[in-house]
Amino acid sequence: MPYPAGLLRVNSMVDLTKAEHMLGLRKAPQSPHVPLAEIYTVEDGSADGLPKHKVDAFKDQLEPLNGRTAWLHSLTGALIVFNCWGMANAFGLFQAYLERDYLPIGTSPSNISWIGSTQLALVFGLGVPVGRLVDQGYFRLVFHSGSIIMLLGIFCTAWCTTLWSLWLVQGLITGLGMGMVFCSAIVALMTWFDERKLGAAMAVGAAGSCVGGIVYIVAARHFLLTHGFPTTMRILGAISAAALIPPNLVFRVRGQRNKSRTRRRQIASSTNIGTFVSPAYLIAAAGMFLAFLGVYFGFVYMVSFASTQLKLSDTASTNLLIYMLAANLPGRFLPALISDKCIGPLNTIIPSIFLSAGCIGLWMALGDSGNERGPLTVVACFYGFVSAGIQVLYAPTVYTFCLDQTPKPTTALTVSEREAMPLATDRMGVKAGAIFSCIGLACLIGTPIGGALVKYRTERGMERPYLGAQVFAMCSLLLGGCMLLASRVARIGWQAKRA
């Protein structure tokens, strides 16, 4: 019997039973595993009635987790981190330069640190709005717009000459672009890996942070001395523009291309407040807030400490930050390996936080001891190494708490049932974004609080001006580690198992 134009036809060995099942003319067998067939369309007006175009009958089939495309996202993600975190890690150099050479004498270090803390806060703090937009299918709009805003902010910083203009452009506008790019990229990357590979993927991407920090610091130090601040910012902007090209060509969210935008909006808008009220989730959010309240104090203020308290030269002070970032690079891979292969991200990040607090304690124990930079260099390198575990494992840790709330089907599902049910990652943006916003708030206020404590002791002529800020950073890390330990107990108890 010839097939009318416009109807479906099964290729090769014609199985009329399967064809009638697919056309809805016969009831399908009651089996969760219906054989798949290649489906072709017949053009209107076709004389021979032969199929002309192949159609993908199961467009909701997803690309594999941990596959080639996933690792391509991880590699290009390193360029995103190179830009966003390289610039943020280099702010310790800009903090010292702005305080000493660019802004009027007497400008408060605490006020200057608001530039870097605003930028850092926006990298994380846009998690909820950006995550919701990504859930609704607007990833490319957010990602591309963020790239443009980020580059606009870097280039426009070249014309800034006052503290308020630097805060507005370098802190707010550049930070806004960084946050749009980074938060959307993190959510997208989470959709391409499962829990056992996400740590390694994040480590590969996070390696760009150390490399970017070193590149930006070396470039900024050289060009600030030879060409001045405006030219330096234009050169850094050109580096950022080149590094953003591959990610803008590659990055997308796994699975979203196979759902209609209307369906994605329904999924995103159906997010229930119950997603966020589990005790383990809330305690983990508090722990992340406290940990990030203190972790970046060392990266921002150790350079100015070496310059003002140890009276080291500008080159020696900046080298301290370079050594710290160089040690940070291998420190990102070891915790990720332990997390993926052995004990999980939560079990790995907790000791990293406590070790970071111990390094701040060692820094305090050194005091302001003359011009001896050797002990401080050792502490800086060790701090860069152990704090890397926090910086690389926060996202995999958040990922595990997000998946706790995702219902898993217990039986085989048909195509239409799979389409109606959200993926494990369909609400990942808003789930992860809530904790990222807590981290962003901590980054916003952490270093300014440290700067205010330094200023308080300096203005009153107290010995060891940095002592109060060091105590604050150490206590924040200790409390953050304790809170994450409590979240682990709330989630799985005291038993020795992967978490």
How would you characterize the overall build of this protein?
- Keywords: Membrane, Transmembrane, Transmembrane helix.
- InterPro entries: MFS, MFS_trans_sf, Proton-linked_MCT.
- Belongs to the major facilitator superfamily. Monocarboxylate porter (TC 2.A.1.13) family.
- It comes from Friedmanniomyces simplex.
- This is Major facilitator superfamily (MFS) profile domain-containing protein.
- α5 packs across α7 (about 165-190), α5 (about 125-135) packs antiparallel against α17 and α13 runs parallel beside α15.
- By secondary structure, the chain is mainly α.
- Residues about 1-60, about 405-410 and about 415-425 have low confidence and may be disordered.
- The chain folds into two domains: about 10-55, no CATH class; about 70-405 and about 425-490, MFS general substrate transporter like domains (Growth Hormone, Chain: A).
- The termini are far apart.
- It has helices at about 15-25, 70-90, 90-100, 110-125, 125-135, 140-155, 165-190, 195-225, 230-250, 260-270, 280-295, 295-310, 315-345, 345-365, 375-405, 415-420, 430-460, 465-490; strands at about 10, 40, 55.
- It is globular, with a radius of gyration of 26 Å.
- It is about 70% helix and about 0% strand.
- It has a three-stranded antiparallel beta sheet with strand order 1-2-3.
CATH homolog superfamily of the largest domain: MFS general substrate transporter like domains
Tally of distinct domains: 2
- Reported CATH architecture of the largest domain: Up-down Bundle
Give the CA-CA distance, first to last residue: 60 Å
Please provide the ordered H/E string of secondary-structure elements: EHEEHHHHHHHHHHHHHHHHH
**Tally of alpha and pi helices:** 18
Percent helix, as a range, is over 70%
The largest sheet, given as strand count, sense and whether it forms a barrel, is: 3 strands, antiparallel
What fraction of the residues are assigned to beta strands by DSSP?
Answer: under 5%
Pfam family, one: MFS_1
Main location: membrane
GO cellular component, one term: membrane
Membrane topology: Multi-pass membrane protein
